[in-house]
Amino acid sequence: MNTDRFQTTQVRTREIDEGLRQHMNSIYTKMTAGVLVTALVAWVVGSSPLLLQLFLGGPQAYIVMFAPLAIVWFGFRPDTMKLSTLTGVFFLLSALYGISFASIAVAVSNNPEFGVIVAKAFFIAAGMFAGVSVFGYTTKADLTPIRTFAAMAIWGVIIAGVLNMFLFQSSMMDTVISMVSIPLFAGITAWQTQDMRRMYSPNAPKEFMQRYAWAAALTLYISFIAMFSHILNLMSQR
């Protein structure tokens, strides 16, 4: 009897581990697809003078820059949207970030040395992202306080960045904002990875887990893009 119970427990544990692995893979696949869409759109728009003028050649550039924030705050509702709509909104957001990064693609095409900086910034961001994500997955400590602090601090960073863009235009303040933002988004990544693992339940409805996967993928995507952009900002100022 005890042997049968032990074997049943082992089988159940393997099923949970396999389900968790599939859940995590699903989230990281979505996040990676978003990054690829961003890179592709940046390259396409950056290679077309017509598209550059259309999206970034006037006041509409501010719409492109701030539209992702509006979508995140008001247009991404995993709890109420259809799954097909969530998919569309996620990739729309990825495309908008790609348009914003089109100027980076132009700089790379005009200056191969800057292309090396972009590549280095990307690999540094990828390595940092992977490191903090592994930490969040394996640590036994509760990272919820980090999430609370980082989320509040990021609001302050966003406000400071907007003020600096329109009022101060200080390169020193820009540098400080990047130096503060990188560890903040790293902390959010670690917390989100831990939360992804904790939220998984083999008994949860499939649709619920799919909705949660899109929400988690969006958080990870934004954290990665933010770390990359701020690392690139610091490296390009050297």
Note down, in words, how this protein is organized.
This protein has 238 residues and is an all-alpha fold. The protein has one domain (2-236). Helices cover 87% and strands 0% of the residues. The protein is built from 9 helices and no strands. Helix 3 (60-75) packs antiparallel against helix 4, helix 5 (102-110) packs across helix 6 (112-138) and helix 6 packs parallel to helix 8 (171-199). The longest helix is centred in the N-terminal third of the chain and has 45 residues, at 2-46. It is globular and about 50 Å long. 27% of the residues are buried.
**Secondary-structure-derived class:** mainly alpha
Helix and strand pattern: HHHHHHHHH
Average predicted local confidence, pLDDT: 87
> What proportion of the residues form beta strands (DSSP E)?
under 5%
Task: Domain count, please report it.
Answer: 1
The helicity comes to: over 70%
Ranges with pLDDT <50 over ≥5 residues? 6-12
Over all CA atoms, what is the radius of gyration? Answer: 20 Å
DSSP summary, beta strand count: 0
Overall outline: globular
Instruction: Report the major sheet.
Output: none
Number of helices: 9
Distance between the termini: 68 Å
Provide a compact summary of the structure:
The chain has 9 helices and no strands.
What's the structural blueprint in terms of helices and strands?
Blueprint: H1 2-46, H2 49-56, H3 60-75, H4 83-100, H5 102-110, H6 112-138, H7 144-168, H8 171-199, H9 206-236
Helix pairs in contact: 1-4, 1-5, 1-9, 3-4, 4-9, 5-6, 6-8, 6-9, 7-8, 8-9
